[in-house]
Each structure stands twice: as structure tokens, then as C-alpha cells.
Write a structure and sequence with these properties.
The structure is a single chain. This protein is mainly β. The protein is 0% helix and 47% strand. The protein has no helices and eleven strands. The strands form four sheets. The protein has a four-stranded antiparallel β-sheet, with no helix packed on it. The protein has a three-stranded antiparallel β-sheet with strand order 9-10-11, with no helix packed on it. A two-stranded antiparallel sheet has the order 1-2.
Length: 103
């Protein structure tokens, strides 16, 4: 595992990557799923049950959820047309919906 998100052009050329191994802001322990919302923010699920939010250039914005069974073992993420973030949690057997401001 390289514990980062890599960005490629439409032609498949590597452009840049962001993140590193760890548990701090902008760090990952096995990032799994990624989605880009209509507002351009990038949402990344992480094996530690967190969802981190980045600008498209890789700059850390915030963390939506961590632990406490808010999101447990996320196995899918999507953004709706109205800005909500939908996360499927395999181990919790539920779908969580976050408002655009992360609530």
C-alpha cells in the first residue's frame, strides 16, 4: 500500500499525488474509496473509519467522521447533486448521509 491518492490525466498520465501514511490530517491508512462532489471537493474514505475532504489540488480541508460507529468500515461513497455525501458502511450495515457542511 502506498497510503496516498494519485491523480491522472484523462489520457492516463500521472499528474500528482497527495497524502502519506499516518493518522494525522491529510494522512491515510489504506485509503479505499474516492468521490468528487459537484463543488470540486474530493472525499476519501480511509481504513480507520474516517472520511477526509480535500481540494482538488490535494490540500486538506477537513475530516467528516471518525469512529464511534458514525462510519464503520466504509465501502462506498458518492456525492448527490444537492451536495450531500452518501457513505455505505459494510460492518455497520447502514448508509450514512452527510449534509454539505459535514453534519
Amino acid at each position: 500500500f502506498n497510503h496516498r491518492v494519485s491523480v491522472f490525466s484523462e489520457d492516463g498520465l500521472f499528474l500528482y499525488s497527495f497524502g502519506s501514511e499516518g493518522s494525522g490530517k491529510g494522512q491515510f491508512r489504506c485509503p479505499r474509496y474516492v468521490c468528487i462532489a459537484l463543488n470540486g471537493l474530493v472525499y476519501v474514505t480511509n481504513e480507520d473509519n474516517s472520511i477526509q475532504v480535500f481540494q482538488q489540488n490535494g490540500q486538506f480541508v477537513c475530516q467528516l467522521a471518525i469512529g464511534n460507529n458514525i462510519v464503520k468500515d466504509p465501502h462506498g461513497i458518492a456525492a448527490t447533486s444537492d451536495g450531500h455525501i452518501v457513505v455505505a458502511s459494510r460492518d455497520a450495515n447502514k448508509v450514512s448521509i452527510f449534509t454539505p457542511d459535514g453534519q
